[in-house]
Amino acid sequence: MHAMQYVFTLPAGYGTGRVRERVARTGHLLDDWPGLGLKAYLLRERGVHGSPVDQYAPFYLWDTVEGMNSFLWEGAFQRPTDDFGRPSVRQWTGLAYEEGDAARSPARWAVRRRRPVPEGVPLAETA
Predict the structure, then answer these.
(1) The model's pTM
(2) What is the average pLDDT across 84-90?
(3) CATH number for the domain including 60?
């Protein structure tokens, strides 16, 4: 499994409503993308929970590197970069994915937590 995310900081006045409309109109185009396991279209809104900016931050879990690379290099990723500029793409190798009790419910929140791996601690113990 491979996780991938990129973030677009939206121009002042662009508004997240336009992003919501865009996702409603085009989000389904990736539904059958080979190798894609999960997609989430994340928004951060200026003034909500202390956010100083509006951001659009798609997040994906890929079952295959081939599917992820195809998304990045064969056109689909070009559409949002044409509109918002080319962001840095973050990628991580995933250790596990488990569905919780609310897996089939609409998502309302996403939280990213980063923790350093202590020096000298075997990676297997940290995982």
Answers:
(1) 0.83
(2) 94
(3) 3.30.70.100
